[in-house]
Design a protein that fits this description.
Order of helices and strands: HEEEHEHHHHHHHHEEEHEHHEHHEH
Distance between the termini: 26 Å
Strand order of the largest sheet: 3-1-2-4
Strand content: 5-15%
Radius of gyration: 23 Å
Helix content: 40-55%
Structural class: alpha/beta
Length: 361
């Protein structure tokens, strides 16, 4: 059967599920299950069994819904067992806990061996699920600890040397290598109360009203919408209370233009550099947001299942609400299970407008 033709028996809202089922899309496992009336069983979307006729198919979001309707799990694809995505997520979470608990950052070889995978496979898996590499995750963890130690030293009136040892460094020379790049300024300046990043910011008009765009040297860290510049800047001060806010700069102007182009064409798949901080769970949710095709939507429960946390629906909704870069992490593509456009920090009207513009392309 041709995958581009939607059978009459399949509702338009279920078109993506039908196509994922026909293509045996592994990434769709956990988002929904497929029940077949003629056999009385339900399967994962990736099930290798022969595909049924569309008029015999019913889609359910959760296993228990299919079982409540009288269907039993397929013995071939085992939809009632932990999905591959859940298993992979558990492996990455374990690796993150290992990195966090270690005094010395574990090597890629050590982490891969613990997971029972090759180094190349584990590296790809970690990056896909966590949104960063194991090395970068360990580096970011060390930098957060450095900053916290320096802040504590400032509050306690301690010396830079004491703060360096508090951060876990055995010698100060190792700490000072690249310290300014890691901390955003020299350690003494950090202790003097100038903590935080340098963030270039602009408030510019766009078709959604005013957009506040902020970026560090590493990438976009904020994208917010509003109607009033003073309100947007007040929110900026609250979000980044210790940052050094600046305007201009050639590199920032180029990035600003790219962000505005993405706002104009939210369906674009061009990747922009991001510098967004969040927990592992939040990073997983934000990474999953970027996999939702333009013009399509997912429910919070589907997103929770996609990251291997089907019982964390409320936490997923909270992570979407804390998304620091609207449109770039397209949280506007996540809706209530009923399909209602609910829960958008920048207004339901903007959410509806973004989806409408994507669907016209």
């Amino acid at each position: 059967m041709h995958t581009d033709t939607l059978p009459a028996a399949i509702a338009e809202a279920d078109a993506w599920k039908w196509r994922a089922f026909l293509a045996r899309t592994l990434e769709a496992d956990g988002l929904f299950v497929v029940a077949v009336r003629t056999t009385g069983i339900y399967c994962r979307p990736s099930c290798p069994a022969r595909k049924p006729k569309p008029e015999n198919v019913t889609f359910f979001t959760l296993n228990r819904e299919a079982e409540a309707a009288g269907f039993r799990p397929c013995k071939r694809c085992r939809p009632d067992a932990p999905s591959r995505s859940q298993t992979e997520t558990a492996l990455v979470e374990t690796a993150c806990r290992t990195i966090e608990a270690a005094e010395r950052a574990p090597s890629l070889a050590e982490l891969a061996a613990d997971a029972g995978l090759s180094q190349a496979h584990f590296h790809r898996l970690f990056r896909r699920i966590a949104g960063t590499t194991p090395k970068a995750y360990a580096k970011a963890l060390r930098e957060r600890r450095e900053g916290a130690a320096l802040e504590a030293a400032f509050e306690a009136g301690q010396s830079v040397t004491a703060a360096i040892h508090e951060a876990g460094y055995e010698c100060t020379a190792r700490f000072y290598e690249g310290a300014t790049e890691r901390l955003g300024m020299a350690p003494k300046a950090r202790l003097g109360g100038g903590s935080g990043e340098t963030v270039h910011v602009a408030v510019v008009p766009c078709w959604l009203g005013l957009a506040l765009i902020g970026a560090t040297a590493r990438g976009v860290c904020l994208l917010r919408f509003g109607e009033d510049e003073a309100t947007l800047r007040a929110g900026l001060a609250k979000a980044l209370p210790k940052a050094r806010i600046e305007t201009g700069g050639a590199d920032f102007e180029a990035l600003l233009a790219a962000v505005l182009a993405r706002i104009e064409r939210p369906e674009s798949t061009e990747e922009l550099p991001l510098d967004i901080q969040g927990s592992l769970f939040e990073q997983q949710v934000w990474t999953a947001l970027r996999t939702i095709p333009a013009g399509e939507t997912r429910s919070y429960s589907q997103l929770a299942a996609q990251i291997g946390r089907p019982d964390a629906v409320r936490a997923v909704a909270s992570a979407c609400g804390r998304n620091p870069v609207a449109v770039l992490n397209p949280c506007h593509r996540v809706v209530a299970k009923s399909g209602k456009l609910a829960g958008y920090a920048w207004g339901i009207e903007r959410k509806a407008a973004l989806l409408a513009r994507e669907r016209k392309k």
